[in-house]
Amino acid sequence: MKRSALALAALMALPFASHAADLSYSYLEADYVHVNPDDFDNVDGYALRGSGAINENFNLIAGWTKINQDAPFPDTKAWYLGFGYHVPIADKTDLFAELAYNKETTFDNDGASARVGVRSALAQNFEGAAFVAYQKLDHTEANRALGVSGQYKFTPTFGINAEAAVGNNDRTILVGPRLSF
Question: I need a labelling partner for 168 at 20 to 30 A (CA). Which of 25, 41, 54, 136 fits?
Fold first, then answer.
């Protein structure tokens, strides 16, 4: 009941909402990626991710990942493209949702992913987020995850981002620089 009331209040506030200060939805990011999959050895790689604000509440999202596998397995390459929606729910705090088409090119798997969470400017130079995520690719089991992220901003444009997610199929850590604009 409380969740329904909160969701209804957020939807009713949409026309009157102002953009949460200090949260940029236009950025480019390069990450080191560490994945600890169930039933396999740990793997490492890198990712490029980005987002571009379309207007006050909508943004486009895109990313590319390469995970280095040990022989005899080929390296895994994947990309995603989608959109996001965010709405302020408190001063400097947004509720966000993302939906993306996913393509894993190594084994030609298609699918979709979604994330819903809360993102907040917790201090002048630090923001954090918590989210739930879901991903389903062809010929694979769906992965549901809980995650957290944080960004320390050295300047309004440059920061270091870190993200950790624990899913039913793996555990993932991403760390890297972010340029916000």
Answer: 25
52: CB partners within 8 A, 6+ apart? 25, 26, 59, 60
Cis? peptide before 72, omega within 30° of 0 = yes
Q: Alpha-carbon torsion 66, 71, 74, 80, what sign?
A: negative
- Which domain range does residue 46 map to? 16-180
- Which token pair is 67? 């995970």
- To which residue do tokens 């555990």 refer? 171
Cβ pair 151, 161 in contact under 8 A: yes
What is the model's pTM?
0.84
57 falls within a domain: yes
If one counts the domains in the chain, the total is: 1
Mean pLDDT of the chain, nearest integer: 88
Helices first, then strands: H and E counts in the chain: 1, 10
pLDDT tens digits for range 10-34: 444 443 333 344 799 999 999 999 9
131 belongs to a structural domain: yes
Are 170 and 38 spatial neighbours (Cβ–Cβ below 8 Å)?
yes
Kindly report the CATH number assigned to the domain that includes residue 146: 2.40.128.90
Does residue 23 belong to any structural domain of this protein? yes
Of 106 and 47, the structure prediction assigns the larger pLDDT to 47
Share of the chain above pLDDT 90, in %: 76
Please say if the pLDDT value at position 125 is more than 60: yes
